[in-house]
Specification:
Helix content: 55-70%
Number of strands: 5
Strand order of the largest sheet: 1-2-3
Shape: globular
Largest sheet: 3 strands, antiparallel
Structural class: mainly alpha
Oligomer: single chain
Order of helices and strands: HEEEHHHHHHHHEHHHHHEHH
């Protein structure tokens, strides 16, 4: 397990721990976070706010949103890759699939039943936890064996459990591609200095299979291509219908990409990162791991697909003053100050 995988699993543990644990935490015999709709009160870390006086929480939500924009502008889509609930639950489900993979004929019969049963149990507990933010979770759990839940509690537990079960089981990253608004606004939050997943076309093009042992382009006289030529090869590979057939090159002129398609097979939604950046990419880095393994098998250095800014890939000089991070940082501080002032006044 490399450092990136360790961070992914740490983020998964933290996010699941926060979601499933917060309803159980108490602060002076009161839930740490509880939206009591019937009493029209919100319990927030020791504060008791009426629902008509929740402006501080709205400021806090705006501060969190501005902070997300700031992190995106500085570091790319870390939220999507590590902390988004959709990503976390999908990663948890795939780990469950690996754990429940059994060998033999009996395993083939038991495996789907066991997998669905375990995921249904997780989805049900997720629904109970969700409703636990609106009704004391201790009472919910105590009422389960006697079927003493009221109508709206039963509805929302069932609705959220079914949504969790079906969403991850059948949709997974399609939610990120087609439904999530974050991918649509992400281009407005980033610039050329924002790191993201890139294919180093100067080193990889022209792509093509070749026998192992030829050495990387950095070990041969060819070296790196100029950016214009590299982009032309990428366009030809991505648009064969309009660009026509690609020219044939000898092994000495080929780039480091062996055209094995390992990066495409590893991508959960089947993107080919070699054809250029796309908003559908959640930067999970699966293509990076697959390409690094392929480079190692060919005896080439890792990093043909890497996390870097487009400015660095194209060797442009760094920008000393970036407008977007400064704007989002200022908004984060402003909203946070308003939230703190409102919470202190409410207390």
């Amino acid at each position: 397990m490399n450092r990136r995988h360790a961070v992914q699993w740490l983020a998964l543990a933290v996010m699941l721990g926060l979601f499933y644990g917060l309803p159980w935490l108490r602060w002076h015999d009161t839930a740490v976070l509880l939206f009591d709709i019937e009493a029209r009160h919100i319990h927030f870390f020791g504060l008791d706010l009426r629902t008509d006086a929740i402006l501080p929480l709205l400021w806090l939500a705006l501060a969190a949103l501005a902070a997300l924009c700031l992190v995106t502008s500085l570091c790319g889509r870390l939220w999507c890759a590590y902390a988004c609930p959709q990503t976390v639950l999908t990663r948890l489900h795939r780990a469950l699939r690996r754990v429940t993979t059994l060998d033999g004929l009996v395993g083939d019969r038991i495996e789907p039943v066991l997998r669905h049963a375990l995921w249904a149990a997780i989805a049900l507990w997720t629904g109970i936890t969700f409703v636990g933010y609106f009704s004391p979770i201790g009472g919910l759990v105590a009422a389960l064996p006697a079927f003493a839940l009221n109508g709206w509690e039963v509805f929302w537990i069932a609705f959220y459990a079914l949504a969790t079960w079906a969403n991850v089981l059948f949709l997974h990253e399609q939610v990120c591609t087609y439904l999530c608004p974050y991918s649509r606004v992400q281009p407005w939050l980033t610039d050329a200095c924002t790191p993201s997943i890139h294919y180093d076309a100067r080193r990889g093009e022209p792509r093509g299979a070749r026998p192992a042992g030829g050495g990387s382009v950095m070990q041969r006289a060819r070296g790196l291509l100029d950016p214009v030529t590299a982009r032309d090869y990428v366009f030809r590979a991505a648009h064969p219908a309009s660009a026509g057939p690609r020219p044939t090159f000898g092994d000495a002129h080929l780039g480091d990409c062996t055209d094995c398609d390992a990066c495409v097979r590893a991508c959960p939604i089947g993107l080919d990162i070699r054809n250029g950046r796309t908003d559908a990419c959640i930067e999970c880095s699966a293509c990076v791991d697959a390409c690094d393994d392929a480079m190692a098998r060919s005896g080439f250095p890792a990093g043909l697909i890497l996390r870097a800014s487009s400015a660095r890939i194209e060797q442009r000089p760094p920008v000393p003053l970036r407008v977007r991070p400064l704007l989002f940082g200022a908004l984060t501080l402003l909203f946070l100050a308003l939230a703190i002032a409102g919470l202190l006044a409410a207390n």
